[in-house]
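To illustrate the input format used throughout this study, we show a single complete record. The first block contains the structure-token representation of the backbone; no residue identities are included at this stage. The design step must infer an amino acid for every position from geometry alone.
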């Protein structure tokens, strides 16, 4: 895993921050590999890029907050402000959330944690087209990244949850994901002495650990996953040399009125937090996923999905809700193959008006892919705890075996699909 090399605050802002910011190493309480249970402690400082307010909570500071609103900056303007960010958690709540996030004790059989499907070194996703849960069976969709999830206001591909707290109920209690029940989860946490101690530190006013504190901690941790210091960002803040000629050319294609990518994948987050019907295909043999039609009970949203961020996009493949595209070139080419190119026969879908027929050249598609590579910034990757309060292994072998098998199968399927397309040509 990547280690934080330096404080990663851009330009002038580091002066502002100097007193309050710590490195990730200092931040996260533990400092050696062999902690005994009594040695678990929670961080007292905010994560890097956050400052501690007089009220004792962490506030995000970024260069983007100094820019005015999205208005009047044109399509894909670089110096635009960010939407509101969910913050205001204490350092202890964030750090407790980190332990919970990596602890397989949150699943029914202790075999998977949130981090099994949202792995820090895989763009907080899992390299699988569709994730596998405790049964080893593939679930319906691909695991989205959690980078910058603090700026998101609707969760899941079909936008069915309105907060991170509400979102957490999905994986925790879905029989195909972590398979737990609220009663069992609470019993597990309450009977783990280290958690009892840590929750008391993080929530000094609490009478007894409740589900609410578990969801709040998971939320607090996730809001610290900030990625806003990529080479693209340095360019956006005015350092032209941060990008190569090709990368700038790629950015220009990306935000051109021909390709229109930036209409939906709007800087600085590379999403506009909307849902849209783009008509991306399901994998061979799977029936149409109606997406947000179900959430809003609105037929015109058949096949609508949340516009995903493209931050750290090179790390989080396979792509789209279905994991249908193995690499970025395939995903980008989809937009060039014609409006509605993948709508199954007999289905009607109201494809979004910004999905056009851009007729980009192969070179232009390559340039977009090159540009997307500049959106990588994992400098604030949190540390994976060496141990978690339950004492369970942080990533369980059973899960490792199951996901290895699933990846091998995925490769075979992909090769078969390629063979079929080639022989069909
Ligand atoms: C079995 C794999 C798996 C596990 C375990 C898992 N997730 Fe996920 N996660 C997914 C998938 C797949 C989706 C998308 C599901 C959908 O859209 O229907 C998702 C979606 C999310 C989202 C929504 C992101 C967005 O932008 O909409 C968040 C947040 C999230 N997970 C956090 C968590 C947390 C916190 C945990 C632990 C409590 C967790 N996940 C456990 C696979 C998993
Ligand atoms: C009308 C809005 C819209 C426009 C315009 C648009 N996209 Fe998307 N994009 C989406 C939506 C919605 C998804 C998710 C669709 C799905 O999962 O089926 C998506 C998914 C993606 C993904 C996969 C992300 C992931 O995490 O899996 C990439 C890459 C991408 N878009 C790049 C582009 C590029 C490049 C362009 C311009 C050629 C573009 N998009 C134009 C809405 C849009």
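Output of the design step:
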């Amino acid at each position: 895993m990547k280690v934080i090399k330096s404080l990663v605050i851009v330009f002038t802002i580091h002066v502002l921050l100097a007193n309050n910011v710590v490195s990730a190493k200092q931040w996260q309480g533990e400092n050696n590999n062999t902690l005994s249970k009594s040695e678990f402690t929670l961080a007292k400082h905010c994560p890097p890029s956050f400052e501690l307010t007089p009220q004792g909570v962490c506030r995000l500071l970024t260069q983007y907050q100094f820019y005015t609103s999205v208005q009047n900056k044109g399509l894909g303007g670089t110096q635009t402000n960010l939407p509101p960010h969910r913050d205001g958690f204490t350092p202890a709540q964030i750090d407790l959330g980190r332990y919970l996030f990596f602890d397989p004790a949150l699943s029914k059989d202790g075999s998977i944690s949130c981090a099994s499907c949202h792995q820090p070194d895989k763009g907080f996703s899992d390299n699988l087209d569709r994730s596998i849960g405790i049964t080893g069976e593939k679930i319906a969709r691909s695991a989205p990244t959690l980078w910058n999830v603090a700026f998101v206001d609707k969760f899941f591909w079909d936008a069915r949850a309105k907060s991170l707290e509400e979102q957490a109920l999905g994986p925790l209690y879905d029989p195909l994901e972590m398979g737990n029940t609220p009663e069992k989860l609470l019993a597990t946490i309450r009977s783990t002495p280290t958690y009892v101690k840590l929750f008391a530190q993080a929530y000094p006013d609490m009478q007894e650990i409740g589900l609410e504190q578990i969801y709040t901690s998971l939320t607090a941790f996730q809001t610290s996953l900030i990625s806003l210091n990529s080479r693209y960002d340095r360019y956006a803040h005015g350092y032209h040399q941060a990008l190569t000629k090709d990368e700038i050319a790629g950015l220009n294609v990306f935000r051109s009125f021909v390709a229109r990518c930036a209409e939906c994948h709007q800087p600085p987050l590379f999403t506009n937090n909307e849902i849209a019907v783009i008509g991306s295909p399901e994998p061979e043999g799977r029936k149409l996923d109606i997406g947000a039609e179900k959430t809003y009970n609105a037929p015109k949203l058949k096949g609508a999905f949340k516009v995903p961020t493209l931050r750290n996009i090179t790390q989080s493949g396979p792509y789209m809700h279905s994991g249908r595209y193995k690499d970025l070139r395939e995903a980008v080419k989809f937009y060039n193959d014609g409006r509605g190119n993948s709508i199954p026969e007999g289905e009607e879908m109201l494809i979004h008006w910004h999905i056009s027929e851009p007729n980009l050249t192969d070179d232009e598609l390559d340039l977009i892919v090159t540009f997307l590579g500049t959106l990588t910034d994992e400098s604030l990757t949190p540390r994976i705890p060496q141990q978690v309060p339950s004492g369970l292994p942080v990533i369980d072998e059973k899960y490792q075996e199951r996901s290895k098998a699933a990846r091998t199968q995925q490769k075979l399927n992909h090769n078969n699909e390629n063979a079929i397309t080639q022989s069909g040509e």
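Structural context for interpreting the output: The beta strands are 50-52, 58-60, 275-277, 304-306. Confidence is low (pLDDT under 50) at residues 1-26, 421-425.
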